[in-house]
Amino acid sequence: FRTDLSIQQKMLVAEYDNAVRYGDAVLESIIDLYREDDTIIIFFSDHGEEIYDYRDYMGRSHEPIITAGMAKYVFEVPFLIWMSDKYKQEHPDIVKRVENSIDKPYVIDDVPHLLLDLAGIRCCEFEPSRSLISNEDTSFTRLIHESMQDYDRLRE
Asked: What's the CA gap between 114 and 134, in Å, rounded?
C-alpha cells in the first residue's frame, strides 16, 4: 500500500500491474500449448518501465546520465527460459548449461547468440562467448548505450 502516491498515480500503477498480469496469462497459455512437446521457450521484455518506483516519474526517460534507480527500473527486464519435460529429457546438455547460467550477467543485445547456440547454428556472426548458456568465460562490461555508463557499477 503506497501512501506516497496520489489516487491517479495508484490507478496508473494498478493499470500497469494488470497489463503485466495479462502478459503473464498469455505466456502461461503459450507454455500450456507446448507443454507436452519437445519445446524451449525464451521470453524477455524489450525494455523496463518506471511507474513511480523510486521517484515521481512514469514512463521511460532518456536522460544523458543514468542513475542507479533508472538502471534498475528501465534497463532490467524479465527474462525466462522455459523447457518442457520432454525437452529436458531430450537435451540434458542444454538443461545443464541453462542451469549454470542462472546468475550470469546478461544483456538482451546478445539474445541472437543464445538463439544460434540453442539451434546449433554456427556462422561467422555467432560469438559463443555472447551466448548466455556458453561454457566459455562470459565476463564483460555491460554498458548502457546512450550514456556509455557501466551498468554493474551503477547497481553497486
From this structure: 8
